[in-house]
Specification:
The chain has about 525 residues and is an alpha/beta fold. The chain is built from 16 helices and 15 strands. Strand 11 and strand 12 form a beta hairpin. The longest helix is centred in the first third of the chain and has 15 residues.
């Protein structure tokens, strides 16, 4: 399977697809898949544009809206992760991934999929130490602070990815792993980017959690972007790869290696075992005469007409078993770990055979359904050509039907719903926010919806039913401000326990809740030192 890798897309989809078409014509070949490493900028309209964390003079609609409206269709299956320049409100509707346009798939906060037998994992956003231990507390309309923190990597996604076992062929990130420059031509990199030297010396160039994931997952390929330059490296994993009791990965120490060397000094030499290597490649942004695209060929299953996009059963099982660890608090919280938590609390969520069977029995068809649906009107260049001089407000919150279907089928919670409820907001209706006439005018492509079936039983204290009406406050009977009381008259079996956002002067008051609901304890194996943003 021939795969094209794109660095920072920055909304230039037409230019990227034209480049791929040119490569296909010149080489007499066909590109089967496009992977984008962030800064995708999936802005559907002017309201989406207001959620991007860039100076106003750099706000540009670019060309994604044409693929959203149906004016254009992506000529190749496209999979992308988020960066730090995104339509954050749209991506937040799809925390577990989904179609942002026909043939264009977002991996979510973190995700794992299979394309014709090639296992692809990825994580969205960039690392900032002061937000890493927080929950996903942001929701539209964003403040000046949450407009940036919404795309910062959180510990839960890293923790979940560490539970993966087996081979990972490709890993996508926006940030670089810390220290990756030591495995490539560091001097050539510094000639291109001399100002990287200070960050290298201070250890701030790259992401520490990504370095841990690199050692834990050891993928065959790792692709990144963000720093707007091309850089290649070969990372050998020549130490013994072990899974520790706390669910994380570790390597044997140098002292252990020395002891083994002494013990085997007189033993006849045997052939060396092949060393596992990760091929790292970072690419530039999409501009003329810049190295923003790379094509490679990876062994895969036979392709009939179009590549087959499937869910990863192990990843689904991990999402299901760690659902109770979701937090929507603004303050720090801790995930399970042997050193910090109770020994009776589960801290290794690598799926058991029973958990895998439960998922595979439920998702008998792991193929991702083509259930894209437009929920807002797309940008109209004829009527809004002078948009850079227009005053536009941020969008309201929308719940995406794709995510509703996925969460219901798997029996997990939508973090966006949780944070709305935790802050006393009404849940908007799930579905289209535009009229049928607007749909007919904007596109001819009809969404395809696949019935996945009944949800799994979630073994957690939190259940979310998106068909519930808006929750109401019952301050007269409430004594605990850390949980939410849902109305009992509709569906009493659907109750939810959610942490709330830390109260501030400008924040809306928290909704009081019933005192008979228990809070969830949080544990974590490591604490990262906060850094300045």
């Amino acid at each position: 399977m021939k795969i094209a890798i794109e660095g920072c897309a920055h909304g230039e989809l037409e230019r990227i697809y034209e480049t791929i078409e040119s490569i296909e014509k010149d080489g007499g070949t066909k590109i089967d898949l496009l992977l984008c490493c962030g800064d995708f900028q999936s802005t559907r309209n002017l309201e989406d544009l207001q959620t991007m964390a860039v100076p106003k003079k750099y706000l540009d609609m670019c060309s994604f809206y044409k693929y959203y409206s149906g004016e254009l269709v992506a000529p190749v299956l496209t999979i992308f992760i988020g960066g730090n320049h995104e339509a954050s409100n749209y991506l937040q509707e799809l925390p577990y991934g989904g179609w942002v346009a026909p043939n264009i798939y977002y991996l979510g906060y973190a995700g794992v999929v299979n394309v014709n037998g090639v296992r692809i994992a990825g994580i969205s956003g960039i690392f900032k130490g002061h937000d890493f231990l927080r929950g996903h507390h942001e929701y539209p309309p964003y403040t000046e602070s949450t407009c940036r923190s919404v795309y910062h990597v959180r510990q839960l996604e890293v923790f979940r990815l560490k539970q993966l076992s087996g081979r990972v062929d490709i890993f996508l990130s926006h940030d670089w792993p810390t220290g990756i420059y030591e495995y490539g031509d560091k001097h050539k990199l510094l000639r291109k980017k001399p100002f990287f030297a200070a960050d290298m010396e201070s250890g701030k160039l790259g992401s520490q959690p990504l370095e841990e994931l690199l050692k834990a997952i050891q993928p065959t390929y790792w692709f990144a972007a963000h720093l707007h330059c091309k850089f290649a490296a070969l990372v050998p994993h020549n130490q013994v790869h072990k899974r520790s009791d706390d669910g994380s990965s570790s390597s044997s120490s140098s002292s252990e290696d020395e002891d083994e060397e002494k013990e085997t000094k007189d033993v006849p030499t045997l052939p060396l075992k092949a060393i596992r290597i990760t091929k790292f490649l970072a690419l530039d942004k999409c501009l003329p005469r810049r190295a923003f695209l790379q094509v490679l060929e990876i062994p895969s299953d036979p392709i009939k007409e179009n590549p087959s996009l499937e869910y990863d059963a192990e990843w689904l099982a991990i999402l299901h078993s760690t659902n109770h660890l979701i937090s929507v608090k603004e303050n720090y919280y801790y995930l399970p770990g042997k050193k910090a938590g109770e020994l009776t609390e589960r801290f290794n969520f690598t799926p058991t055979e029973q958990e895998l069977d439960a998922v595979t029995n439920k998702f008998q068809k792991l193929q991702v359904p083509e259930n894209f649906e437009r929920t807002v009107p797309p940008f109209d260049p004829a009527e809004q050509s002078n948009y850079k001089h227009m005053v536009v407000s941020q969008p309201k919150v929308h719940l995406n039907p794709q995510n509703n279907t996925f969460c219901t089928a798997l029996g997990i919670d939508d973090p966006l719903c949780l944070v709305l409820l935790a802050n006393g907001k009404d849940l908007p209706e799930v579905g289209s926010a535009i009229s049928q006439n607007e749909l007919n005018d904007s596109t001819e492509v009809e969404p395809i919806v696949e019935d996945i079936g009944e949800p799994l039983v979630t073994p957690t204290k939190r259940k979310l039913n998106l068909s519930l009406p808006a929750p109401k406050s019952t301050s007269a009977d409430a004594t605990d401000k850390n949980v939410i009381n849902l109305p009992e008259e509709e569906e009493p079996e659907a109750e939810i326990i959610t942490p709330t956002k830390t109260s501030k002067v400008d924040d809306p008051p928290c909704v009081p809740a019933s005192p008979n609901l228990k809070k969830l304890k949080r544990r974590n194996q490591e604490i990262y030192q906060a850094e300045e943003d």
